[in-house]
TrEMBL record:
Record key words, sorted: Apoptosis
Entry's Gene Ontology BP terms: apoptotic process; regulation of apoptotic process
Source species, domain of life: Eukaryota
Pfam families in the record: DED (PF01335)
Lipid metabolism as UniProt keyword: no
Protein name, as recorded: DED domain-containing protein
PANTHER family to which the protein is assigned, alphabetical: CASPASE 10, DED DOMAIN-CONTAINING PROTEIN
Source species: Pocillopora damicornis (Cauliflower coral)
Domain DED: 8-82
Coiled coil: none
Amino acid sequence: MEEKLKCYYRVVLSRIARDLDEEELKQLLFLCRGEVPRRVTSVWELLVSLEDSAKISWMDVSFLKRCLNVMGRENLVVILTEFENKRGLSIILHAFVEEKQNVKPITHSSATEAASHLVRLMENFSGGEDLREVIRNTGEKAEDLWRQLLSEIPFSNLTWGKFSMLVAIAGEIISSSASTHLRRDHAGEDVMNKCLALGGDLSSFMLKLGCWEQFCSDLEKRFNRICRRDVSRNSPLSFWRQVADTIGDLENEIFF
């Protein structure tokens, strides 16, 4: 997964390097003054130098985004944001699958935490097993189900809640495929490719809604409202508090 995302990152940097002219190189050099230890003669050399200085990496392009934003190259900022979204969503989906298989992440990040939240939310969703049964019944055509689902989601009515639902469904689809093909020679690679493909699909939706931080914040609030409330119910509560929580359940759907 990491190597594939790094390759995608290099493609994005190459595109930026090709798109900036000599005058813009001078602007970028000015904005990066003090950060570039050696003389550079091209945008690509500058980007490599920023990597060497640990100012940018496949996991953090925020410095470059700020510079491009100051330069008025919002179109390139969008390209980097799309990369950030695809990277984060692909990692979420992969972590979602691993958590379903009881594999703990080696490193923790906002993406792996989001994946854990989504798994828990789906466990709390009363229709979760029905959804998984539908996905299992589609078998090899699960990705057709995904395409159909995407075609029926109107951008105008999209919310962070519905987006979270889409991410969770994507995770369930990939998890089902992973379970079915667990013994295939290239099962792991198949899962990674699906995570990248569906993560790419989802990134365009996220771009319409906002940024990665907003998604994580909304998901955290949703998780706290639903899952941690359930934990608190194990402790003694007054009758009226239980009534209030029950009413809250009726008023709030998990993903809407």
